[in-house]
């Protein structure tokens, strides 16, 4: 809409400017209570136009978000430098003749607007929600009967799109759908099933590269539901399809046992941890530091290991770097990479992010990073 300039003495505006006949509508007072103005970029407009269906969720304790089927946008209020007149949809600045005698209705005046910023859901928040009613076995289910959430309810609690929620759920090694509800399986309960699978492999001298899937399910069916057995197989095996033989994965089994040991202990003497870890692994599997990347932080100088899963960290890049370097002032690149890779945007590289947040050092041909002062972060 073209604005009208009026001089201090009330003179008629310049000829080059347009003049329109406006009046306040009868519903003017109601507008601010029932509507808000949302500013969209062209790309955001195209997203909403193509999706057609979207929802806005949130409450007084959280930032509202707009969810499409595949994306989530945080909605933030931004003050406007000028008041915005909201006019009825019969008015168009470039098509309405100036000086038109027919008045146009001013529906409201807005002093602020909403803007959309793409955001991603937090795995830690999802874990906190699902962790309130973990699956511990059929005997414990009555106490959680009224707590479990459907996928749609879970999406509203998480304030994210269904597609993003499913991506998170499928990426969580201890989450599965049981009786139509997504659950996190208690680590001790799941560990029992994993241990029994590994024991079956040893006892029956099965080829770790070609496990008899159906035999395993049949043997364990009296102890666990099909969903739990399949989850345990996914936790410790390479799974191609239900019909192909599963192969026992050294990396998956090793990481599972490392998390199982450290989850409750949080911190251990490094040598004791490695001894316990190696004793739990199936014959032929080796406990190595490569299996701990993104799971725990080894401190060889103090002979300690600390549980530090990447899933517990913020998805905000600056906050994540602060959390990481609060654990240790100096990180090897090989240690740091797994904690940063998962939250890179499509057009970002590790080198770009490290130059923004870190100082680079080389010691004995190995690259280390230290954190820049927060006020020196480059944005």
Keywords:
about 375 residues, alpha+beta, Immunoglobulin-like, 3 domains, six-stranded mixed sheet, three-stranded antiparallel sheet, 16 strands, about 20% strand, disordered N terminus
**Biggest sheet character:** 6 strands, mixed
Based on CA inertia axes, which overall geometry fits?
globular
User: Can you count the helices?
Assistant: 13
Strand percentage: 15-25%
Mean pLDDT: 84
User: Share of helix among residues?
Assistant: 25-40%
The separation of the N and C termini measures 34 Å
Please write the string of helix (H) and strand (E) elements: EHEHEEEEHHHEEHHHEEHEHEEHEHHEE
> How many domains, in number, for the residues?
3
Uncertain stretches of 5 or more adjacent residues? 1-8
Explain what the structure shows.
The protein has 13 helices and 16 strands. Helices cover 35% and strands 21% of the residues. Helix 6 packs across helix 8, helix 6 (187-203) packs antiparallel against helix 9 (250-265) and helix 9 crosses helix 10 (270-280). The chain folds into 3 domains: 22-118, Immunoglobulin-like, CATH 2.60.40; 123-251, no CATH class; 316-378, no CATH class. It has 379 residues and is of the alpha+beta class. It has helices at residues 28-34, 42-51, 123-130, 151-158, 162-171, 187-203, 213-220, 226-236, 250-265, 270-280, 317-327, 333-341, 350-357, and strands at residues 22-24, 38-39, 55-57, 65-67, 72-87, 104-119, 175-178, 181-184, 237-238, 247-248, 267-269, 296-299, 304-307, 330-332, 358-363, 366-371.
């Amino acid at each position: 809409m073209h604005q009208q300039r009026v001089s201090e003495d009330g003179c008629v505006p310049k000829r080059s400017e347009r003049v329109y006949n406006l009046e306040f509508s009868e519903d003017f007072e109601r507008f601010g209570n029932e509507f808000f103005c949302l500013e969209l970029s062209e790309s955001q407009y195209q997203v909403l136009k193509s999706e057609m269906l979207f929802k806005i969720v949130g409450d007084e304790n959280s930032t509202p978000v707009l969810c499409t089927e595949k994306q989530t946008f945080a909605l933030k209020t931004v003050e406007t430098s000028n008041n915005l007149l909201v006019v009825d949809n019969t008015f168009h600045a470039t098509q309405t003749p100036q000086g038109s005698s027919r008045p146009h209705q001013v529906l409201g005046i807005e002093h602020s607007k909403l803007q959309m910023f793409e955001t991603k859901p937090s795995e830690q928040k999802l874990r906190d929600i699902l962790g309130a009613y973990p699956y511990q076995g059929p005997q414990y289910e009555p106490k959680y009967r009224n707590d479990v959430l459907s996928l749609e309810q879970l999406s509203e609690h998480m304030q994210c799109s269904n597609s993003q929620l499913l991506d998170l759920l499928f990426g969580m090694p201890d989450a599965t759908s049981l009786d139509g509800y997504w659950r996190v399986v208690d680590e001790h309960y799941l560990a029992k099933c994993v241990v029994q699978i590994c024991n079956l492999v040893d006892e029956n001298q099965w080829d770790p590269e070609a496990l008899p899937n159906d035999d395993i399910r049949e043997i364990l069916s009296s102890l666990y539901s099909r969903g739990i057995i399949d989850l345990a197989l996914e936790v410790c095996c390479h799974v191609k399809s239900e019909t192909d033989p599963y192969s026992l994965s050294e990396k998956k089994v090793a990481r599972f046992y490392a998390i199982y040991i450290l989850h409750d202990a949080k911190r251990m003497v490094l040598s004791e941890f490695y001894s316990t870890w190696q004793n739990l692994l199936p014959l032929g599997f080796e406990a190595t530091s490569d299996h701990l990347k993104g799971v725990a932080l080894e401190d060889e100088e103090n002979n300690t290991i600390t549980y530090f899963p990447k899933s517990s960290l913020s998805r905000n890049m600056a906050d994540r770097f602060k959390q990481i370097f609060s654990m240790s002032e100096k990180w090897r690149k090989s240690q740091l990479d797994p904690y940063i890779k998962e939250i890179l945007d499509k057009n970002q590289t590790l080198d770009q992010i490290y130059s923004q947040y870190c100082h680079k050092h080389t010691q004995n041909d190995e690259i280390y990073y230290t954190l820049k002062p927060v006020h020196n972060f480059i944005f």
